[in-house]
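[job 4471] stage=fold_predict status=RUNNING
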Amino acid sequence: MIALVGCSDRLATYPVAGRVQFASGSPVHVGTVELKSREHEIQARGEIDADGKFTLTTYVKGDGAVAGFHDCVIVQFVMTEDLAGHKPSLIGVIDRRYASYATSGLSVEVSPEGKNQIVLEVEGLRKTQPEDHAH
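[job 4471] inference complete, writing structure tokens
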């Protein structure tokens, strides 16, 4: 007898789409949204488009996430290299706390019934205080 392992082991997923925005309502233009199921430790992720919108994928593109409560992170890759004459813009950059499950404070519930349309509201990166330099 041969046991086949594959798609049948997958948990049911439900479509999830949404938007990432600042408190002002303006969209976050770049990054990745990732949800981690509290019950199953399964992750779903989606790329944020220029309008702040995303669609989640767990197994195949656009299939959504498993039902239940999820912790959420939002990750952005921001160039921080010191390039001569280059001053990086902080416009559109979210606070770094959203990149960690331990500090993001974001959570959502995915329902097996109805539409799972979520809005994740975030704060922008705050300019850090100048470092104290010893003389």
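[job 4471] summary: The beta strands are 16-22, 32-37, 43-47, 53-55, 68-75, 106-110, 116-122.
[job 4471] exit 0
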